[in-house]
Specification:
The structure is a homotetramer. Chain A is built from twelve helices and nine strands. Chain A is of the alpha/beta class. Chain A has a single domain, classed as HybD-like (Rossmann fold). In chain A, strands 1, 2, 3, 4, 5, 6, 7, 8 and 9 form a nine-stranded mixed β-sheet that branches. The longest helix of chain A is centred in the last third of the chain and has 20 residues. Chains in contact: A-B, A-C, A-D, B-C, B-D, C-D.
């Protein structure tokens, strides 16, 4: 796939699909796609069916649901409710009947809370209902039927010196949850996606992917527990934007585009910070805030069926 | 010991000693004490020698070093240097020859970063050199002779739903450090101690102790790794202050003091927040900031002998 | 009034009334009182009618409305709606017909955003709709009928070196608003009030009052503009709590209470931080957060009549 | 000048000079330039001598000093000391003998403390010594010879609804300072400048310039007080980077560069966020932190001559 030069992984399945299909818009063997248009949002479900599809798409076999909506920074309650309902439904389809009412769920918020564009995961933990300690110490404070939930924001390697996988694996072995829900900020290929998309998948988080840069995959094969991964694009690599600009310039001016020349030109300009420079809109803090609140509620509704939003908010920390 | 009514544990060994000795100032069997007066600071080393001393002092056999200094909020560089040097020396005495040059050290910052008076531990992690990831990914970026260090601020039970012990035990099993250094904010019995004392011990952190409220001890017996615990008083329980006020009033007015009556009177006043209300000076953010920086450097100097303060600061995150 | 020793001013009119009335519960000449019990909240309106009442109550002639509710940290939407509606109605009664539809309103958030218990004012600004710049630069982005509003959190003297009054007076002279709404954290005499009371008055903020410690009154006489002041108790002085504990102890043990002895005893205990030590519950950040959101909406509804909560939230910054 | 399409103003005088000179490196009439190479840093002084130079350079007559250094994120104490000493010297040259020992100085930190890359100004205030209130309330707490200093971070128009100029003008009229020092984050044309340059000028801040986007100039003509402006580049517009990439691609591939086509291509890609998207390195929080500390000390040393760094830090808030 593209951008190996800058070690840029295409986090979103819908963008990977667009890059592979190209202008010809040809079908990708081993990959199925469904599109559903609701009142305010569009839902695209990409299913990677077999190893050939997985190789093409450079990501594991599984289901990738992308919710596209009008800008989330405009905090419209109707759009929000539609997203929350769709997330609840998609989560339940991914969970199936694997989760019993008393099973523990571990929520994981990847990323760095000190860097605004990377704080989606930690904020998700902040807004999610946490109930596991009540089960041990104050069961009467729980609403009937609430399962145990717990949450951790393990930080990033550069700050802790710990691989995210080591921390999560260690905790999983101690508390033995029945499900992990992992939230992380994603990098997009297009600024239009920032604050307008949510991706959910049942395949975990892949190495090198995400702003939070887990180097070891967070997935069922290694943890022994199903992992649902949720992400929102919050940043576009400066290299990607510059490359798109060169491509568009060539198109508009009739010059011949050559990706190698483009990328090496960009490399000269972006040193010394290289591929690590990201483009983020000024409103990114509001976008993160709103997205984290919506994702928390979508996840909470699916994990605590039948409990009202008002009640769930009382258990957020 | 006192204050069982409010589940108040006396975090500082020097205060426990004062409460036991009382006005009579009698010796405590099984407990040894040394006092060293340096230019700016006073260092008290209490050694609990045997089970009888441990029972009296309500804490394990081991060494408790307390550094008392003029107010740390006044950021005097000479006082700071004396404290850092004494911490380095005390740490090295506690570590002995258990730590080989390539051994990994895990730093743990207990407490809640969202509550100012409880953020000492998380800030300690922020200011400490973290090097373990360089050993794996960029060994050339290390100064000759730097050992691997990593750090985590696991948060508090009420926010994560996870026992601090579970998180730490899980990580310890994965990364197998040779030493843990755990930092936490402490509760004092006297406002004069806030921002003027640092306690170090080789006994770990006891259940119920500390502002961060670990419910399970963080200690060598359970983790299989030596644990050095460091803390600073940042808060005094409102109940303790009110009880001291009643006691002082009785002394000054000639009334008869009765602790049961005092504590039940205080309970009426402090409901509905009860024993969880703490008194903290307005300058607490500066005190936490300065204390965290000093403790980080004192620990870092002992873990990375021969490396300058300037170099160590480059590895803080 | 009491506590001159610790320069403690009784911020809340209802508490000043209780202290003056004492056990005998006698009427205060020149002071009128109305109590209204709604479904979830109790509303007490104290009107100081004349100079004699003002002297007794140690605060200016005017109206003081106190809303008492169940704990605001429990984020109950029904209670919230009742408070917002009552605030809107009380604000409108205080504003009367002084405010024309195109008049500018200046919102002022007193206090220190770096100190949790003192951040109510700055957070009020954060959650309030700010529209004045749209009137100049993007009038099409406004909902029909929105007046110009602007807001400032001027910080505290100890951080800026500027008297709050100087900053506000300077801005008032430049932008000539028709009304000021000033929000500040208050000190209470009783921990039960923290997170359960909101006080509104048409008399401005008095010198020495509030956690934010304006030294010069913020009031119509000096600014030439009507000032509505709103506050929530977020802290109780440690001295007040200790004095209450001594009083209660004397009551329970039959000892003779003497306020002078009590206060001088407390002074010994609280040095070196003295009267500046405050008691605050652990949940103070949630209490501040919820209170700021409710106050912002109550104020916004009264300043932008007929505009929905959802629309108003879009203009918060 | 360039980039009118995206309303991009070239904040740095050295970059404006480069753009005007172009490849031919011709002299600019009415503009004088001096370069001084110290041990670690390079100091370029551009003097705009007359209206013709001012028109060419699109900025007022006056002196612009740019300090270029190795990356400030690498917190090297020797580099830091050289920068502080040079800033002190340049400030004193700009101040001349206009400032008497008892004159008040107003420090202004432009920008938005909630947006990391825009928080340089507010952080400058945080780290600067503030002494004016001691002159009124506690003169004994001052070191002999300390002048009154005060500071404000007025926020940004989009958050307050107030023009920065209105707030500052209002305060200036109340407290009548003899000098303003205004600090703001700047936009650069090249990522290499981020965290490696400091610009100081005696001409104030121009409209439209800076990340903080003051729309009305902050300068002596309008305020009646000399204004020294200091800034650091913290961001590069995504449009600038993309345009540079297109330019470099054309150079490398032999295609013909056309700026209009390039900019209109970029516009397509960057909508809907347009010119407001900035590129910032991941380490921006450290860069801001270090730069703010260095600038604060450079300014403080020039305003409080003869007072040690340790003493000055005690007066930071």
């Amino acid at each position: 796939m593209l951008y190996k030069e800058f070690s840029i992984y295409v986090d979103m399945a819908v963008e990977a699909r667009d890059l592979i299909r190209g202008a010809a818009d040809q079908e990708i063997p081993g990959v199925k796609e469904d599109v559903e248009q609701l009142e305010h949002i569009k839902v695209t479900t990409i299913t990677i069916l077999n190893p050939s599809g997985a190789e093409k798409m450079d990501r594991p076999i599984g289901t990738y649901v992308t919710i596209e909506s009008p800008p989330l920074k405009i905090n419209d309650p109707y759009i929000r409710d539609e997203i929350v309902a769709k997330m609840e439904q998609s989560m339940q389809a991914m969970i199936g009947d694997h989760l019993k009412p008393q099973d523990t769920v571990l929520l994981v918020g990847l990323g760095n809370w000190r860097a605004v564009a990377d704080a989606l995961g930690p904020k998700f933990i902040e807004y999610s209902p946490i109930t596991r300690h009540y089960h041990s110490y104050a069961p009467d404070a729980l609403v009937e039927g609430m399962r145990p939930s717990c949450g951790i924001a393990p930080g990033v390697l550069g700050i802790t010196g710990l691989e995210t996988f080591e921390v999560i694996k260690g905790i999983v072995e101690k508390i033995k949850p029945a499900l992990l829900v992992v939230v992380d900020a994603l990098a997009a290929q297009n600024v239009n996606r920032i604050g307008t998309s949510i991706q959910m998948s049942n395949t975990g988080i892949q190495p090198g992917s995400g702003v939070g840069n887990a180097r070891h995959a967070i997935r069922q094969e290694d943890l022994g527990v199903p992992v649902i991964a949720i992400g929102c694009p919050t940043i576009v690599s400066a290299a990607v934007i510059a490359n798109e600009a060169v491509k568009k310039f060539c198109l508009n001016s009739g010059a011949m585009f050559n990706e190698n020349t483009s990328l090496s030109s960009i490399k000269e300009i972006l040193s010394p910070f290289g591929g690590s420079m990201g483009v983020t809109p000024k409103e990114i803090d509001e976008i993160i805030e709103n997205s984290a609140r919506i994702i928390s509620m979508g996840v909470a509704k699916s994990l605590f069926p039948g409990i009202s939003e008002e009640q769930l908010e009382l258990y957020a920390t």
